[in-house]
Design brief:
It holds the Pfam family TetR_N. This protein has one domain: Tetracycline Repressor, domain 2 (Orthogonal Bundle), CATH 1.10.357. Helices cover 74% and strands 0% of the residues. It has 9 helices and no strands. Helix 5 runs antiparallel to helix 7.
C-alpha cells in the first residue's frame, strides 16, 4: 500500500505508467526507472511512496479492481433487482467492460496472476477478488436456485469468465467481449429453471 501523503494527482499517473510499461516490455522488463520516466516523475518518488516495483504493482492492481467494482455496481444498478438472469449477466458484462479488455489492462492482469503465485500479498489480493466474484454471483443465483446449486453454477460462470478472458488476452486480436458474454449467457440460461422461484 502506498504511504500516506502520496499526492493523489501522482497516483493515477503512476498507475497508468505502470500499465503502459508492462504493456510494452512485460513485468520483468518494467523497471522503476522505465515507469518513472513514463510517468514523468523521479524514481525516488516510487521508491519512497511504494517501496519499489512490487508496491507499485500492488497499487496498480488495486486500482484496476476498484474500477471493476465500480463498473459492476454501475451495470447492476441498470437492471431489475428481481431479474436473476439480467443481474448475473450484468456482473459478467462488467468483467468484459471496455476498460478491462484494453491491452494494457489485460497484460497487467496476466502479470498480476503470474506474480501472485509467488507473492503472498498479491496472492491475498487475488483471493479477495476471486471470493468477491463468487459471492456476488451466488447472491444473485440463490434467488432462483437452491444454495448448493447456486454455488456450483457460480463456480462454473467464474471459470468461464476467467477461461474466456485468458484465452482472449493471449489472442493477438484481443478479447471479444460480445462473444464472451454470449457464451456465458448460453451456459447461464441452461442452468436457470424455466420459472425462477421468486416468480412462483
Amino acid at each position: 500500500m502506498p504511504k500516506i501523503g502520496m499526492p493523489e494527482i501522482r497516483r493515477p499517473q503512476l498507475v497508468e505508467a505502470t500499465m503502459a510499461v508492462i504493456d510494452e516490455v512485460g513485468l520483468s522488463g518494467a523497471s522503476v526507472a522505465l515507469i518513472s520516466r513514463k510517468a514523468g516523475v523521479s524514481a525516488g518518488i516510487i521508491n519512497h511512496y511504494f517501496g519499489g516495483k512490487h508496491g507499485l504493482l500492488e497499487e496498480t492492481m488495486r486500482s484496476v479492481l476498484r474500477q471493476l467494482s465500480a463498473t459492476s455496481i454501475k451495470h447492476l444498478s441498470a437492471v431489475d433487482g428481481q431479474d436473476v438472469s439480467a443481474r448475473v449477466k450484468a456482473i459478467v458484462a462488467a468483467n468484459f467492460d471496455g476498460y478491462q479488455v484494453e491491452s494494457k489492462v489485460t497484460k497487467t492482469w496476466l502479470a498480476f496472476w503470474a506474480q501472485s503465485m509467488h507473492d503472498k500479498d498479491l496472492y491475498r489480493l487475488q483471493r479477495v477478488n476471486e471470493r468477491r466474484l463468487l459471492s456476488h454471483l451466488r447472491r444473485e443465483l440463490k434467488h432462483a436456485l437452491p444454495d448448493q446449486q447456486a454455488k456450483f453454477v457460480a463456480q462454473g460462470i467464474a471459470a468461464l469468465i476467467d477461461g474466456i478472458w485468458l484465452r482472449g488476452a493471449l489472442n493477438p486480436q484481443g478479447i471479444c467481449a460480445q462473444n464472451a458474454q454470449l457464451i456465458i449467457s448460453d451456459y447461464l440460461e441452461k442452468q436457470l429453471p424455466p420459472t425462477p422461484l421468486h416468480q412462483v
